[in-house]
Design goal:
By secondary structure, this protein is an all-beta fold. Helices cover about 0% and strands about 40% of the residues. It has strands at about 5-10, 15-20, 30, 30-35, 35, 50-55, 60-65, 75-80, 85-90, 100-105, 110-115, 120-125. The strands form four sheets. It has a four-stranded antiparallel β-sheet with strand order 9-8-11-12, with no helix packed on it. A hairpin with a 6-residue loop joins strand 1 and strand 2. The structure holds fe (ii) ion. Fe (ii) ion binds near residues 48, 72, 118 and 119. The site of fe (ii) ion has 7 residues, from loops.
Length: about 130
């Protein structure tokens, strides 16, 4: 059984999938059950920590200090409202600065979730 927004990875081929609609079944890739990735919570000194700036009521900016090399990089960053109704995702090129501007009223609060190619999934609560 899956839950909306869960992220699963194939241990064999590294396929990564995100659940957009939950179901009773088990996710399988390369003839094996896919691994449900744990959401790690970084301390501010950890490179997977997301800094959030509120530029105004709607406009917000996420910044990260993670390295961006071919071997180790952030593949994408998501902003997700706490009620799970709003999600924005930005994919990053290896040479791109780790900045993400987005508009969200998100009165119920939101969190930032990212996927690192080596260290998997990390979340930072914004408020
Ligand atoms: Fe990392």
């Amino acid at each position: 059984m899956t839950k909306k927004l869960e992220i699963y990875k194939c241990r064999v081929c590294s396929n990564v999938i995100e659940v957009v609609h939950e179901g009773e079944g088990t996710l399988v890739c390369c003839k094996e059950d896919m691994e449900l990735l744990k959401e790690n919570i970084p301390e501010p000194e950890n490179p997977h920590y997301a800094y959030v700036e509120e530029l105004d009521d709607m406009l917000k900016k996420v910044t990260l200090k993670h390295v961006m090399t071919h071997e180790h990089h952030i593949e994408y960053v998501e902003v997700i409202s706490n009620d799970g109704k709003f999600l924005k995702r930005k994919y990053f090129e290896e040479t791109e600065p780790l900045e993400f501007l987005f508009r969200c009223e998100c009165k119920e609060g939101f969190y930032v979730r990212l996927y690192c190619n080596l260290d998997n999934v990390w979340i930072t609560r914004a408020k």
